[in-house]
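For the sake of clarity, the format in which proteins appear in this thesis is described at this point. The fold follows as a row of integers, each naming the local backbone shape at the matching residue. One such record is shown here in full, so that the layout can be seen directly:
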Amino acid sequence: MASAAAEPDPRFRCLERAQYEEAFETSFASLLGKMQANSRQMFVSKQNILRMNHGGTWVHAARDPEPDTSMHSISTEWTIPFKDIAENDLGLIARTILPINEEMEKQFALNMYGVVGAAAEKVGNVVDAKAEGSFAKSMLEMFRKIELGVDRNGEISMPQIHVGPGMAEKIAKELESVPPEIEAEIERVKAEKMQQAREREANRKAKFKGSAS
């Protein structure tokens, strides 16, 4: 008996040759990777990014385990209208890739703030603005709790305030009305924290100095 005819491939192919499809996928992944790198820099400096090749958690022998060091998956869907493909509308690539980047950026931010929040809760480094009674007092308490660091250029790394769009204008107005006595105390505590950071950095560097010959 003659062999049955081969079943037609049900998949829809946008590109005629396999190498074209591979080149498109490589280019698309590279573009999305660059967009994600730009998004991450809004939250994390590129000097503070580590990459893990295998395994499920970070392990640091010099300190206690962090509250959450497990890997977090970020995923989204890429929807491409068939009509735009049939009409050879190349503009759909830009229109559809932006929502992908925005959704992944949103998930990354939620994961990052979740991990930071859990770490702050664990060590008690949390300030309750309502309990403090005013924004100015909560700012002072925040400076009392934080520990400043020094970057690779020897400059003091000052804290950042991350808020939602609705809170930015409100906080800006609150900063303009901080009582002089609290503002003076904030500056005093800030100067003290900066001096402590410089001393810690000096002690750290001293450990790497070779013995005099």
